């Protein structure tokens, strides 16, 4: 009988946001059981977090280094670790567990530099383990539907790709308050990059995932709108593609009044499409010479592969948490060898995200110069 995969978690303890999201996602399809964790660098917080999550005391670790070594030595040790720490720890934690033959599911972005990303990619290749990056929006059914329709040629030749991710929560300097999520995101040593890493990489991955296209060149600008902030809080980029298409990306965490407004538009020679993350059940198709129409999740005209992603009947909304859960479901399938899960983001998506960050940084430093991708 196939058993649940044994899951460990690094980070995500008391007061953390994304750890709870990963835990819900891992449980949603009953593919994982959380059995161990190094939830905080502060022993008292780690202990309280483990107790609240019903983790046995001997598997609630004071450090991720100890956890990697001890779990690898157990007959019932973890199969996979979920990394939900600030960005600067993503790569070193992943390396420690890969060295012990343990698979890795990691929050985005990949790390804080392209150089460390390349080093991790070599280790992933040599280890034989799986590395999964949780770009959850790419697992939403209507995003997969959009990708399938583009790949089928329904839009014709792609002429323009526009992606926009707007938030307003950092319109003030929350990083100098007791806001835990803002504090580490405002620290260059912990985050590595500002808005471009936190949400810009999501926008970038969504655009490349749905279109199936990467640019041949791009230019960008990093802005710091809030005085005194040490990292960027807004990024814009322009892209050129091999087929002559152009693209535009905007990501801002200082867009006052916006919550989590991620939008994608792809314009083709025969039709265009638009997707809005805050209405994740819908994909809008705009045919040339005909009325626009809405494709809904789990609808009769959906692609077969998209319908297979749905957990509830049409009209029973799915969204953010289910996108994460799909990443975990497909991760379980590839770790067990049941499926190749070709759309699951991995180390290549992580490298592309870090390359995007560093290319835009370089372009911005040169006054928005076009640079080869």
UniProtKB/TrEMBL annotation:
Single annotated GO MF: nucleotide binding
Domain GFO/IDH/MocA-like oxidoreductase: 143-273
Coiled coil residues, start to end: none
Source organism, top-level taxon: Bacteria
Signal peptide (residue range): none
InterPro entries: Gfo/Idh/MocA-like_OxRdtase_N (IPR000683), Gfo/Idh/MocA_oxidoreduct (IPR051317), GFO_IDH_MocA-like_dom (IPR055170), NAD(P)-bd_dom_sf (IPR036291)
Pfam family, one: GFO_IDH_MocA
Residue span, Gfo/Idh/MocA-like oxidoreductase N-terminal domain: 6-134
TM region positions: none
PANTHER family for the chain: CONSERVED EXPRESSED OXIDOREDUCTASE (EUROFUNG), OXIDOREDUCTASE
Name of the protein this chain belongs to: Putative oxidoreductase YdgJ
Organism, as annotated: Atlantibacter hermannii NBRC 105704
Taxonomic lineage: Bacteria, Pseudomonadati, Pseudomonadota, Gammaproteobacteria, Enterobacterales
